[in-house]
Amino acid sequence: MMLLISLFSVFETRASTTPLDCKKVTPAVEIQSGIFVRPSHNGILFKDENIANIGFIVGDKAIAVIDTGGSIDEGKRLICQIKQQSNLPIRYVINTHVHPDHTMGNSAFKAENTTFIGHKNLTHAVGILSKTYLRRYNEVTGKNVSDKTIITSYTSVINKLNIDLGNRTLTLTAVQKAHTNNDLLVFDNKTKTLWMSDLLFHKHIPVIGKSGSVNGWLELIKRLKKNKIIKNFIPGHGPLQINWDDASNNQTRYLTLLRDEIRKNISTESDLTHAMESIGLNEGSKWQMFSTFHKRNISYIFSELEWE
Amino acid sequence: MKYMNTLLILLSISFYASTFSIALAKTTENPKPSESIVDQNTTWNTLLKAYYFEDKTIIESDELFDFSAPYRAEDGAMVPIEIVAKKPQTEEHYIKSLWIIIDKNPKPLAGKFKFSPLNGKADLSMRIRVDAYSPVRVIAETNENKLYMVSHYVKSSGGCSAPASSDAATALARLGKIRLKTSLLKSFEQPVQTRLAISHPNTSGLQKDQVTTLFIPPHYISKIDVKFEGKTIFSAETDISISENPNFKFYFVPSKAGILTTEITDTKGNKFTQTKKLEATIN
């Protein structure tokens, strides 16, 4: 099945210059009643598409989109996937954080007359980063997408915000620094599903952003592990079928190991190169995409902890 | 007409490349030389070499030192580099300065570091910002005024404009804190590894404030002076290409127990100092 999905993705990517035929787009997966996810496969930013789990939640009166993918084409395909399920209006586009694999499809939804929602720090993060993302995207793909497509105005979530989709309330929570400094959790009260996006990595190595905090992230997972209300969890990367205890324990083990070993390095030799070359090598066989992200994780966490 | 176009193209290539003949040879071989050696070194050959070293001869050789840098930067704002000298510093022959130059950075010269025979060996590690795919060069000047260069191409982007790793208030609260660490002193007359770390945002002027999204003014460490028993053992003039929270590793030979002092000056005229007593652990 996964193979079939990836074959389709390749086809869709190639066909992006011709008008999009919604009938040919692979439908999103309904993982809980009314919660649809467009599954991801592992890949590299800008170079590959469909690398993050994105999707939408359908209420009785309206639809909320959760992340829009890494390109306008990906956003357009998501609109197809929505139309395949429902003709209700797309009232909200929620960005779980600023990273390009989650936000670069935003402008596809401009015409849908939606409200864009994000963490209170998201507007600033977009202001600082989005043009750079777009420049990199254009460099890598050879396209010429204009700056003007960037969505710059968001409804800010300062602490919590409830949105009503008609007989279905989503609770959005702005969290402290974790994966980035602008992470938003989306909780569907109806099915008790927590859309964690990149606050949870499943089988794909956890990746920390430059503005994130390993301490904040570990603290958040610790708190969520005590929560007995949440029944289902959706990760930002990796397979959707998930055992929460295993997934959260694995992520905690990896991040704790990095934090402790980096602290040790800082207090003794304080050598970034040695830290990157020696820490956490045993974790290599336990994660997908390890060689792509592990050293960078160490570098970012080193910066966070060096003067904590 | 066709001929005129070709001529114009060749003329413009010759303007960017160091010598006409090399550019011409390269274009005939491969009409689109992307990231070729000629392209990589164009800024250096046409501009920087003369700007920093005038018409002096620079020997491209790793005879005096090894230089390592990652081919692909994990974090462009924090690229670790290391220089390891191949010969000891003696009164007769020694490296008197090391220049670190990143061709494509807005201010290419990251710093000029001074050494003497007191260092024992002219090893040096630090972390630099690399703003774009660029050669990173280390040029050593000997006491005989000879220049040696080793360079590496580093793939990186946005290193000078990347936001700081901590917010401005936190960074300000610990501004100028210094950690000065030395390895255990097992015998005199042997180089002792010294690690100098300074908490400083070292803002480049190209970073944006997270809240206002306006550019943050440059504020960086410009001078470093480390003395042992009143004698300078390590000094440097540094610029915006040094990463935030600058961190240097170098060596010196203490002939006896004594006091290590450091004085750091930044572009706002702040001076930060730290003292460390160096005691022998020799039995």
What would you say this structure looks like, in words?
The complex is a heterodimer of chains A (308) and B (283). In chain A, α6 packs across α8 (290-305). In chain A, the strands form two sheets. Chain A has a seven-stranded mixed β-sheet, with helices on one face. In chain A, strands 8-9-10-11-12 form a five-stranded mixed β-sheet, covered by helices on one side. By secondary structure, chain A is α/β, with parallel strands linked by helices. In chain A, β3 (54-58) and β4 (63-66) form a beta hairpin. Chain A has eight helices and twelve strands. With 283 residues, chain B is α+β, with helices and mostly antiparallel strands. Chain B folds into two domains: 2-41, no CATH class; 64-278, Immunoglobulins (Immunoglobulin-like). In chain B, strands 1-8-7-4-5-12-11-14-15 form a nine-stranded mixed β-sheet, with helices on one face. Chain B has a three-stranded antiparallel β-sheet with strand order 2-3-6, with no helix packed on it. In chain B, β7 and β8 (147-154) form a beta hairpin. In chain B, α1 packs across α2 (20-29). Chain B is globular and about 50 Å long. The termini of chain B are far apart. The model of chain B is unreliable at 1-33 (pLDDT under 50).
